[in-house]
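Help needed: design a sequence for this.
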């Protein structure tokens, strides 16, 4: 098992990018797909696409992000890729529906994001399990619902560049 104790940088940094490009042409860049919900963890046991087991133990000031370079040697590299994140898109029909939806989602302590009048809930399990908890609002057509997928790069890239986040995520 390979122990990883720090993030070396981002795959888009010019110095690292050039080395990774050369290794990639030789098929020597291994990827570890990290679920979006695990990116904030500093300790993680995970296996790369190539089958190598990693024990990640990062210092407090570092986090994983999409494109994080975990290993860069003359003959190989390991880079983090954030898995696609799925969101439950909930659109209340009126203000009273929005209030009830917000109350229910808040009590369930789901991780959320706001986009205008739409509430996005991060799916960390089966969509059916989430929908069952909101069954009354959905069946009565007081809340429109759909599932969307998006790459995790948008926030992770910002954190990598600036070392902090401006997200509207809410979690307990």
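Sure. Designed sequence:
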């Amino acid at each position: 098992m390979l122990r990883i104790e720090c993030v070396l940088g981002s795959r888009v940094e010019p110095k690292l990018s050039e080395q990774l490009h050369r290794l990639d042409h030789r098929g020597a860049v291994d990827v570890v797909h990290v679920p979006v919900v695990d990116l904030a963890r500093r300790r993680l046991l995970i296996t790369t696409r190539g089958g190598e087991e990693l024990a990640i133990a990062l210092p407090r000031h570092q986090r994983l992000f999409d494109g994080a370079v975990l290993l860069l040697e003359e003959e190989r590299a390991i880079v983090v890729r954030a898995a696609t994140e799925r969101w439950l898109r909930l659109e209340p029909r009126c203000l009273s529906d929005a209030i009830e939806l917000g109350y229910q989602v808040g009590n369930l302590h789901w991780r959320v994001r706001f986009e205008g009048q739409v509430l996005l809930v991060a799916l960390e399990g089966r969509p059916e399990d989430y929908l069952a908890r909101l069954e009354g609002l959905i069946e009565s057509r007081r809340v429109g619902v759909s599932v969307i997928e998006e790459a995790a790069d948008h926030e992770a890239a910002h954190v990598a560049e600036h070392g902090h986040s401006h997200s509207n995520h809410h979690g307990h």
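The first helix runs from residue 14 to 25.
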